[in-house]
Amino acid sequence: MIGYVTLGTNDRDRGAAFYDAVCGELGVGRIMENEQFIAWGVPGGGAGIGLTAPFDGKPATVGNGVMVALEAKDEAQVQRIHEIALAHGGTCEGPPGPRGDGFYAAKTETERERCR
């Protein structure tokens, strides 16, 4: 049902490096790019992710409570993606680990305090 999710950014180059690295681990690359917008995914595949400066010209701000989950193939890939995200400027919102009945996840954000 979801075609893509777009995230706002105030630093397109930094955001692009972050998603190039994370999406590269997931086996997908850029599928669309112009001066304002970059999208990653698989043409004709599942939902993609886009990064853009807000169209209204105002600064991008955090949507409190908004979360986008990227599907990994196994626990080892969750760990690798978490490490890649941290290495590319992400910050830890919860280290990799079990989150309930057969669900294994990690949380990173781009502008929060790092995990201790």
Task: Provide structural commentary.
The protein has helices at 12-25, 75-87, and strands at residues 4-8, 29-33, 37-41, 48-52, 91-98, 104-109. With 116 residues, it is an alpha+beta fold. It has one domain: 2,3-Dihydroxybiphenyl 1,2-Dioxygenase, domain 1, CATH 3.10.180.10. Strands 1-4-3-2 form a four-stranded mixed beta sheet, covered by helices on one side. A two-stranded antiparallel ribbon has the order 5-6. It is globular.
Keywords:
single chain, 116 residues, alpha+beta, 2,3-Dihydroxybiphenyl 1,2-Dioxygenase, domain 1, two-stranded antiparallel sheet, 2 helices, disordered C terminus, Glyas_Bleomycin-R_OHBP_Dase
Gap between N and C termini: 37 Å
Q: In which order are the strands of the major sheet placed?
A: 1-4-3-2
Low-confidence stretches: 112-116
Per the CATH scheme, the topology name is 2,3-Dihydroxybiphenyl 1,2-Dioxygenase, domain 1
Secondary-structure element order, N to C: EHEEEHEE
CATH architect. name: Roll
Radius of gyration: 14 Å
The backbone outline, from C-alpha atoms, is globular
**How many domains, in number, for the residues?**
1
Q: What is the H level of CATH, i.e. the homologous superfamily?
A: 2,3-Dihydroxybiphenyl 1,2-Dioxygenase, domain 1
Protein structure class: alpha+beta
- Figure out the total of helices: 2
- Main sheet record: 4 strands, mixed
Q: Residue share in helices?
A: 10-25%
Average predicted confidence as pLDDT: 85
Number of strands: 6
Oligomeric category: single chain
CATH class: Alpha Beta
Strand content: 25-35%
Protein name: VOC family protein
Organism: Novosphingobium album (ex Hu et al. 2023)
InterPro entries: Glyas_Bleomycin-R_OHBP_Dase
Region (Disordered): 89-116
